[in-house]
Amino acid sequence: MMVRIDGSKVRRLREQKGLTQLYVATAVQVTTDTISRWENKRYPSVKKENCLKLAEALGVSLDELLEHQENDEPEPAAEEPAQEPRESRESAFLRPTRKMLFIAVGLLLVLIAASVAGWFYFSRSTESVITARRILPKHCMPGQPFPVIIEVAGTPDRPVTLILREILPEKAVLKKTSPVLSAATEKDRELKWLEKIEGPTRFIYTATLTGEPGEVFHFSGDIAVSQDSEKAHPVTGNDTIKTGAHHWADANADGVLSDKEMLTVHDEYNGADKLGIDITRIEKIWQSAGYRWNEKKSTYEILP
After folding, report:
1. In terms of Cα–Cα distance, which of 148, 267, 133, 123 is closest to 200?
2. d(CA 105, CA 111)
3. 39: number of Cβ within 10 Å
4. Is 297 within a domain?
5. Beta-bridge partners for 290
6. Among the listed residues 149, 168, 137, 136, the one whose alpha carbon sits nearest the alpha carbon of residue 272
7. Which of 70, 140, 169, 175 has the smallest C-beta neighbourhood within 10 Å, fewest atoms?
8. CATH code at position 48
9. What is the DSSP string of 246-273?
10. For residue 151, with 0-12 CB atoms within 10 Å meaning exposed, 13-18 middle and 19 or more buried, which class applies?
11. What residue numbers bound the domain in which 59 lies?
12. pTM of the prediction?
């Protein structure tokens, strides 16, 4: 069940209580990007179960978050038509009904045409609003696993079947995926998911790369929905990654993990810990003075 929330009120309540979007997103079990879209009214319709979690996180009732129409005035009552003389009413009732039949058939045809046009419009509009964005680290160490997230957004409030395709570079080795792949070809380089979704969905996989430091690798993919399976749209976002001597979470490659980089790990790469990414070790690097790569042991050493 979907409900409409007042995004401005959600933001005001969150700021009044001194809560961050990350805190609220964690409590509701969604991403901060989703919270931002709710507050900016880009997703006014929200699953009721998520809205209940949101209300609990903000310490208010569900009704306080719902969007209400204000200053509603009752429509004036229509004037009652004057009664026709009895003889006139009787004669009208006795008139031939052929004209009324033509009118009814005409209205029925108009309704059928409107239904077909509406179905065509919503089918096309559904296909056009669905987007897929890839979240890919800028760099990684050869042989070390890194996560890739593909966010599918813009889906309507009804189930949609889609095919998401991702093509890995030649030197990539696939490790794990979530959800489970529907198909994989060419030694797991062409990945395919066939899923029916009802809202924003994240597809996650982990992989490793073999190559010389400084080598650049390219990823590509596309998405097609059930309304137009022959017309696929490319996956947007980052599509390149370079091998080097720094951890994938260290976005600016300075040998330390900042607060911003740690928040990015928990926000954008949420769920990667279930696919073999050691989030605990990343947190220890963040809490320390930095890290360095031990080539002999093929591991990251945490600096005291």
Report:
1. 133
2. 10
3. 21
4. yes
5. 303
6. 149
7. 70
8. 1.10.260.40
9. S-TT-TT-SSS--HHHHHHHHHHTTTGG
10. buried
11. 2-65
12. 0.58
| 304 exposure class (CB count in 10 Å sphere: 0-12, 13-18, 19+) | exposed
pLDDT in tens, the chain (304 residues): 888 888 888 888 888 888 888 888 888 888 888 888 888 887 778 888 888 888 888 888 888 888 875 444 444 443 444 454 554 544 454 455 666 776 877 888 888 887 776 665 555 444 447 889 999 999 999 999 999 999 999 866 778 889 999 999 999 999 999 999 988 776 678 999 999 888 889 999 999 998 888 999 999 999 998 755 567 899 999 999 999 989 999 999 999 999 999 999 999 999 999 999 999 999 999 999 999 988 888 888 999 8
CATH number (domain holding residue 234): 2.60.40.10
For residue 112, give every residue at least 6 positions away whose Cβ sits within 8 Å of its Cβ, in sequence order, or none: none
Write the CB contacts of 210 (distance below 8 Å, at least 6 apart in sequence).
142, 143, 171, 173
Question: Tell me, what DSSP letter sits at residue 77?
Answer: P
In a domain? residue 47: yes
